[in-house]
Amino acid sequence: MSGKPLPGKLFAALVVLLLSSISPSLSQLHAAESVALVKEVSAELDLAATKAIFDSHSACFVDARSEYVYYKSHIKGAISLSDSRFDEQFPDFKQKKAIETLIVVYCTESSCGKARRVARKLMKNGYRNVRVYTGGLIEWAHAGFPMEG
Amino acid sequence: MTRIGFQSALITTLRLLLGAFFIMSGFEKLLDLKFFGLIIAEYQIVPSFLIPAVALLFSLCELLCGTMLLINLFSRFSSSVMLCMMVIFIAAMINNVMRGLEHDCGCLKFLSQWYGLKEEIGIVPIVRDILFFILLLPIALLGSNRIPWKKDQK
User: Fold this and answer.
1) Backbone conformation region of residue A92, classed left if phi is above 0, alpha if psi is from -120 to 50, else beta
2) How far is A68 from chain B (nearest CA, A)?
3) Of A5, A10, A115, B142, which one's alpha carbon is 20 to 30 angstroms from that of B60?
4) What ipTM is given for this predicted complex?
5) pTM above 0.95, yes or no
């Protein structure tokens, strides 16, 4: 046997037991929190829902792609707030758009992560009414919906 | 004699090819300076307030140096300016690739429009600019720096 006394072993066993009983509840808490965050961020819209919002003129459309791509073409009336230069563009955006504005963020296509990243950044900066249009500009253009640039 | 003839022919060929290339490249950038400026902004190196000036300077440099190379006016000087620009382009692209940024390189838009070549920053545009650097070297080292109309005065 090793030289560790019995009370010490008991104490160690108790600590292990205590930790193992706490950790599942902690991980459940973390899981619940992350699910809530994902739900909040991933308020995602399909083409029909996006078009309905576009027609109602109730939302601000945000283009999360780089500014030079936005400059060439974007959804009609959209504002550029690129993922790559968010910090430079955001102060101007904040001045123009109130915190409660409904914002629809999009990028190129569903596999492009820029829209979700910009949506997350906007929510971090206080904008709670943020949606992501997952189809992106490619789907929008294919549908023949209004573009400019 | 043959060696001098070959050297002269080589420099003339490089001068004409690179000159024409830089004229096209500078001209297309001047046609849409705002677009070129937005690409420079993506590099996240130049301060925002300097971007329009840098865009104009780079485009004008390419156009003027290209023209000077083509007509053999201050070829050594103009190729040296282009060498410096190549170093700046290469350094900027390497910097951005190392930072994991992904964007258009803003080098030769006409190539991507006409031949469908991808113009994103990466190894291809870096190698291409290194190649331009190598091709410019003979002109900078062995080309002439004369003024054509001064020769006529002799």
Assistant:
1) alpha
2) 5
3) B142
4) 0.78
5) no
